[in-house]
Structure formats: C-alpha cells, structure tokens
Amino acid sequence: MRKPLLAANWKMNMTLNEVKEFIKVLNDAQIDYKEKDILIAPPYIYLQELKKRLKKVKISSQNIYFEESGAFTGEISPTMLMSIGIDWTIIGHSERRQLFGDTDDIINKKLLLSIQKGLNVILCVGEKLQEREAGIEKELVISQLGLDLKDVTPEMMKNVVIAYEPVWAIGTGKTAKSQDAEDMNKAIRDFLKRRFGRKISNNTRILYGGSVKPENIKELMSRENIDGALVGGASLKPDSFLKIVNF
Ligand code: PEP
After folding, report:
1. Are 221 and 4 in contact (CB under 8 A)?
2. For a pocket test of ligand 1, which of 11, 231, 235, 241 has the largest count of ligand atoms closer than 8 A to its C-beta?
3. Which of 68, 93, 155, 219 is catalytic?
4. If 0-12 CB within 10 Å is exposed, 13-18 middle and 19+ buried, where does residue 19 land?
5. What is the CA(170)–ligand 1 centre distance, in A?
6. What confidence tens digit (pLDDT) does each residue in 87-120 have?
7. Which residues form the domain of 100?
8. pLDDT mean over 65-87
C-alpha cells in the first residue's frame, strides 16, 4: 500500500565527473520504478544535471531556507527549487541540526514554507546516543515531531515523508537493530494516527536511515513500518546504491 522509497543523501560529496558516471550506471540499470520510488539528494550544484538526465528518479535538495527571496547569502528558497523543476527537499537532517544550528522551530518554518510552495519533504528526526542510553528515545523523537509538524494540516501531510535516523547510527557503521527501528517507526505511526487520523497514519511513508548498506537493507525492509531508507555513505557508489535499490 505504501510504495517503498529508497533515497540517497550524497551530502557534500561527488565531483561532476563522478556524478556523470553515476548517472550512466543508473540509466543502464534495471530498476522497477512501478514498484519503488528512487530519490537522489545531491549538492545543489548538481540538481539540474541529475534532473535532466535521470527522468524516472526523484531529485531532491538536501536543505532549504525558510524565506522566499532576499538578502540571505548562500541560501536557496523553495520557490527557486520549484522554478528548476525540483519538488523534493530533505529538512532537519541531523547534520543540519548539529552543525548548522537548525532548531525545531527553524525546521518547522522550513517545512511549512516548502509545503506551501509545493515541495515534498523528507523530514528527519532521531535521538542521540545519550538519549537512547537514557531510555528516552521515543519521547525525544515524538517531541521533535510535534514541534517540527506544528501547524501542519492532514492535507499537508500528503507532501511529507518521515525519516527516522538515530544520530548514533549515521555515518558510524552502527545500524539500529531492525527491531529497534521497527519499534520507533511504529511509535511514529501511532503519533501520526493520534495527530492526523488513521488514513494519514497509514499512508505516510516512514523511512529508516543510519548506516544502511546492501547487507542490511533486506532485513530492514522486511519490517511492517519501515517503508524505505535514507542512505548516506552507501549511496555514493552506484553499485552499492543499486544493490540497496534492488534489495
Ligand atoms: C544520512 O546521511 O542520512 C545517513 C543515514 O548516512 P549514513 O547512511 O552514511 O549513515
């Protein structure tokens, strides 16, 4: 019922030549696009190249600013993205939260403007290691969601995908146990049901991210509430990303 979404977050990686090679391999590959959605979030400067050459793949930015235009040096607005045909963005990635000061309030503003302008959003949430060790991971993630989704209506949720990404699993090689990821995704779905009702809760895709690799994708995807993956490191090489896509 929920179409799997396999998403690559390239972060600040790849040269233009590497991007061109990646495109070539992906275009030559067998992928059943009816059965699954594939998304790539490259650095901004490669968005148009990818959009032009990968017709069946969804192309996403990794971040967005919460104003439409103006004196915000170095930033990109949802309106600008839409004007080049890009209708996806990631918001709230833990690296944005930790390194660039994105608070839940900022994330909420980014999300509201993005949806208002027609973008689809992958909203990332996740606990830090100390929070998991203290046993408060579910409260923490649900509280993040409450703040990040402030003033979001059920109608707007059609544009939202949630990615549960425990911070301690990102780029560390430590994947969450599939049962722990399933438990969190179930807790997120229960929150969505309380907040938006059964239909939205059933229809919203909830991904897992954090050291996803070809070796663990199948197990993760076998879980009822894991509808896809957000992949960092293992998405940088076309072979490895393809193995994940064709899990
Ligand atoms: C990410 O950047 O969202 C991520 C999950 O990274 P990695 O797969 O490298 O842990």
Report:
1. yes
2. 231
3. 93
4. buried
5. 5
6. 999 999 999 999 999 999 999 999 999 999 999 9
7. 5-245
8. 98
